[in-house]
Amino acid sequence: MLEQLEQFASDNYSGMCPEVLDALISANQGSSPAYGNDQWTEKAANAFRELFEIDCEVFFVFNGTAANSLALATLCQSYHSVIAHEVAHVETDECGAPEFFSNGSKLLLSPGENGKLTPEGIAKIVTKRQDIHYPKPKVISLTQATELGTVYQVDELKAIKSVADQYQLKIHMDGARFANAVVALGRSPAEITWRSGVDILCFSGTKNGMAMGEAVIFFDRTLAEDFAYRCKQAGQLASKMRFIAAPWLGLLHQDTWLKNARHANECARYLATQLAAIPQLRLMFPTEVNGVFVQMPEEVIYQLREKGWLFYNFIGVGGIRLMCSWATTGERIDELVADIKAILGI
Ligand SMILES: Cc1ncc(COP(=O)(O)O)c(C=O)c1O
User: Fold this and answer.
1) Does residue 91 line the site of ligand 1, with CB under 6 A?
2) Which UniProt keywords apply (predicted)?
């Protein structure tokens, strides 16, 4: 049977939003120069410059692992290290790609409440050792919104920027859910990136309604030197670039990206509110964007799966992650909550 019902396993499960599909169809006219020399790629890059209020350098790659890995590789020599949260996607879910593409730059991990690095945690790693035997810390990698569905507030970003300045560290931002963070914070994209010290942002289109595609945005153009070669060598230079660039026009035009993210965040809040009212369940983290993390009895998890619900429980025993997207519906949330209640007999 074809799987058509919206699920809560990942925001990657949803299809393309209509605006993206329209943009893709418009780009499918006749022939166009390859490898990014087309009008859609230029327009999309300019749209980012307008959005971020800066003359940034923009590259389009296929997925988030490549975006993060190539961005980090650009910032590091092989003997450098990257400070990341212990649950960061770059550490847990990229199969060592950041280390691979940087020829061995080591990830140094820090704990932190709600998936967030702290200035103290960062300083502890930097000052732990300063001898030649320790890989020299060079970059802080922040995930905004975090893997645990929370967001760094502007003052937290600024505090991290201070510690970055103190120790001459660059800042990379994994923006797999950057759109959701912008909506949650109600701040401008510029304010929560380069105005807060971010050097490179990997901005995901995939989770916001595209079929695939991430924009790697360099706020300091000098860092982008030779990045095009990195993309090509890594197999990330799309020959028909217009088809990963044009969908961005669909998202950025008339703030569709914000509409999609707002919808996903509101769905998560609606789901979290209902789950919080069930005594046998426990929300694990504040629901600040589009993910709800909840502990429930193993038997409930088992029976939900038996009923055909798909979700991940990789975050620890008893805890599951429920993700909402631009395509989530209130009806599916109500169905899920009704099934949970029925299993619990309430
Ligand atoms: C925090 C985070 N970063 C990056 C990614 C991108 O991963 P992918 O390489 O699957 O596009 C994801 C996808 O799940 C993610 O959750």
Assistant:
1) no
2) Lyase, Pyridoxal phosphate
